[in-house]
Design goal:
about 160 residues; mainly alpha; about 0% strand
Length: about 160
């Protein structure tokens, strides 16, 4: 039964050795171990804080990017709308200018035709007058004595100078 009840001297030496071991472990082992654990815990917490901060910044950047994209889309639509309006205006201006030029050319052609018609009528009047003068001159030159020969001469002149 000696094994079950330890001796007092043995018990005292065990307590002294345990205390000494406890003191040495506390001074040299537990301090650095707890310090390294605290340091590791702090570094993990710092990494978690940094990750959370980075996540927040990423969310902020994402929302800013979405706003910039929306603004860029609006600007693009505005630019495209302006370009389309400018193109439509240019086409309408060109169409109006072409219509005005066509109208001007049509008026010039009408004026030219009117001038040609007037010149033709004037030429025809001149020809008729010249023809009438020639006929009268021939009649007067002959100084015909009888009426029958005068009528025959006029008939011949009229039939030979038919105007179309």
């Amino acid at each position: 039964m000696n094994l079950l009840t330890p001796d007092i001297g043995l018990l005292v030496w065990q307590v002294v050795i345990f205390g000494l071991l406890f003191f040495l472990l506390r001074k040299f082992a537990w301090g650095p171990i707890t310090d390294s654990l605290k340091e590791r815990e702090n570094s993990i917490q710092g990494a978690l804080d940094l990750a959370e901060k980075t996540r927040g910044e990423m969310a902020k950047l994402k929302s800013e990017n979405e706003q910039i994209l929306a603004q860029a889309r609006i600007e693009r639509d505005t630019i495209l709308r302006g370009a389309k309006e400018t193109a439509d205006k240019m086409v309408a201006d060109a169409r109006d200018k072409a219509a005005a030029e066509g109208q001007r050319m049509l008026e010039q052609a009408r004026d030219a035709m009117q001038n040609e018609r007037q010149a033709l009528v004037a030429s025809m009047k001149k020809d008729v007058v010249n023809l009438s003068i020639e006929v009268a001159e021939k009649v007067l030159r002959r100084e015909l004595t009888d009426k029958a020969s005068q009528e025959k001469l006029v008939q011949d002149l009229v039939s030979s100078s038919r105007l179309n």
